[in-house]
Design a protein that fits this description.
6 strands; 19% strand; single chain; two-stranded antiparallel ribbon; elongated; two-stranded antiparallel sheet; 30% helix; 4 helices; alpha+beta; 115 residues
Length: 115
Amino acid sequence: MKPHEVQELRQCTLTKRTSFHYFKDRYALELLRYFIGDGLDIGSVKRSPYAQLLKKGVVKEVVTSNGGSFLRSDHLHKWPQQFTTYYLSHAPYGSKSRWSYGYRQTTRRGLNLAL
Protein backbone atom coordinates (compact mmCIF):
# COMPACT_ATOMS: atom_id res chain seq x y z
CA MET A 1 0.00 0.00 0.00
CA LYS A 2 1.03 3.55 -0.45
CA PRO A 3 1.47 5.79 2.62
CA HIS A 4 -1.67 7.82 1.86
CA GLU A 5 -3.73 4.61 1.56
CA VAL A 6 -2.49 3.43 4.96
CA GLN A 7 -3.35 6.79 6.51
CA GLU A 8 -6.85 6.74 4.98
CA LEU A 9 -7.53 3.22 6.26
CA ARG A 10 -6.33 4.13 9.74
CA GLN A 11 -8.69 7.11 9.80
CA CYS A 12 -11.66 5.00 8.64
CA THR A 13 -11.21 2.09 11.05
CA LEU A 14 -10.80 1.69 14.78
CA THR A 15 -11.47 5.35 15.45
CA LYS A 16 -12.32 4.68 19.08
CA ARG A 17 -11.27 2.04 21.58
CA THR A 18 -12.39 -1.21 20.01
CA SER A 19 -12.70 -4.32 22.14
CA PHE A 20 -12.81 -7.94 21.07
CA HIS A 21 -14.12 -10.56 23.48
CA TYR A 22 -12.55 -13.99 23.15
CA PHE A 23 -13.37 -17.39 24.57
CA LYS A 24 -12.63 -20.92 23.44
CA ASP A 25 -14.54 -21.92 20.29
CA ARG A 26 -16.14 -18.51 19.82
CA TYR A 27 -15.60 -18.97 16.10
CA ALA A 28 -18.03 -21.92 16.15
CA LEU A 29 -20.87 -19.72 17.42
CA GLU A 30 -20.05 -17.01 14.86
CA LEU A 31 -19.94 -19.44 11.93
CA LEU A 32 -23.19 -21.10 12.95
CA ARG A 33 -24.90 -17.73 13.37
CA TYR A 34 -23.82 -16.83 9.83
CA PHE A 35 -24.92 -20.20 8.43
CA ILE A 36 -28.37 -20.50 10.02
CA GLY A 37 -29.49 -16.93 9.33
CA ASP A 38 -32.95 -16.48 10.88
CA GLY A 39 -33.14 -20.10 12.01
CA LEU A 40 -32.64 -23.71 11.00
CA ASP A 41 -33.49 -27.13 12.41
CA ILE A 42 -30.64 -29.13 13.95
CA GLY A 43 -31.09 -31.95 11.42
CA SER A 44 -30.25 -29.60 8.57
CA VAL A 45 -27.18 -28.38 10.40
CA LYS A 46 -26.08 -32.01 10.98
CA ARG A 47 -26.30 -32.67 7.22
CA SER A 48 -24.32 -29.56 6.37
CA PRO A 49 -20.58 -28.87 6.20
CA TYR A 50 -21.02 -27.12 9.59
CA ALA A 51 -21.99 -30.33 11.42
CA GLN A 52 -18.61 -30.57 13.21
CA LEU A 53 -19.33 -27.27 14.97
CA LEU A 54 -22.16 -28.96 16.89
CA LYS A 55 -19.52 -31.02 18.75
CA LYS A 56 -17.93 -27.93 20.32
CA GLY A 57 -18.65 -27.56 24.03
CA VAL A 58 -20.03 -24.03 23.88
CA VAL A 59 -22.36 -25.00 20.99
CA LYS A 60 -23.55 -28.15 22.79
CA GLU A 61 -24.56 -26.04 25.78
CA VAL A 62 -26.57 -23.67 23.58
CA VAL A 63 -28.31 -26.48 21.69
CA THR A 64 -29.30 -28.42 24.82
CA SER A 65 -30.49 -25.32 26.66
CA ASN A 66 -32.86 -24.51 23.79
CA GLY A 67 -34.52 -27.89 23.36
CA GLY A 68 -32.19 -29.31 20.74
CA SER A 69 -34.48 -29.31 17.71
CA PHE A 70 -34.37 -25.79 16.25
CA LEU A 71 -31.60 -23.23 16.34
CA ARG A 72 -32.07 -19.47 15.95
CA SER A 73 -29.34 -16.86 15.68
CA ASP A 74 -30.41 -15.22 18.96
CA HIS A 75 -29.69 -18.54 20.73
CA LEU A 76 -26.04 -18.19 19.71
CA HIS A 77 -25.52 -14.93 21.58
CA LYS A 78 -25.09 -16.78 24.88
CA TRP A 79 -21.50 -16.61 26.06
CA PRO A 80 -19.72 -18.37 28.90
CA GLN A 81 -19.20 -16.57 32.20
CA GLN A 82 -15.48 -16.11 31.64
CA PHE A 83 -13.92 -14.57 28.56
CA THR A 84 -10.89 -12.47 27.75
CA THR A 85 -11.12 -8.95 26.38
CA TYR A 86 -8.55 -7.60 23.95
CA TYR A 87 -8.34 -4.00 22.79
CA LEU A 88 -7.59 -3.70 19.10
CA SER A 89 -5.28 -1.24 17.41
CA HIS A 90 -3.26 -1.17 14.23
CA ALA A 91 -0.09 0.41 12.94
CA PRO A 92 1.75 0.69 9.63
CA TYR A 93 4.40 -1.93 9.00
CA GLY A 94 6.89 -2.45 6.19
CA SER A 95 8.93 -0.38 3.83
CA LYS A 96 7.86 2.94 2.36
CA SER A 97 9.49 1.92 -0.88
CA ARG A 98 6.90 0.62 -3.30
CA TRP A 99 9.03 -2.30 -4.55
CA SER A 100 11.11 -3.19 -1.51
CA TYR A 101 10.35 -6.24 0.60
CA GLY A 102 13.66 -6.03 2.40
CA TYR A 103 13.97 -8.17 5.49
CA ARG A 104 10.42 -7.48 6.68
CA GLN A 105 7.79 -10.16 6.39
CA THR A 106 4.98 -8.42 4.57
CA THR A 107 2.16 -9.61 2.38
CA ARG A 108 2.25 -6.67 -0.02
CA ARG A 109 4.89 -4.37 -1.42
CA GLY A 110 5.19 -1.09 0.39
CA LEU A 111 3.35 -0.51 3.66
CA ASN A 112 0.96 -2.91 5.39
CA LEU A 113 -1.32 -2.57 8.38
CA ALA A 114 -0.57 -4.78 11.36
CA LEU A 115 -3.45 -5.51 13.76
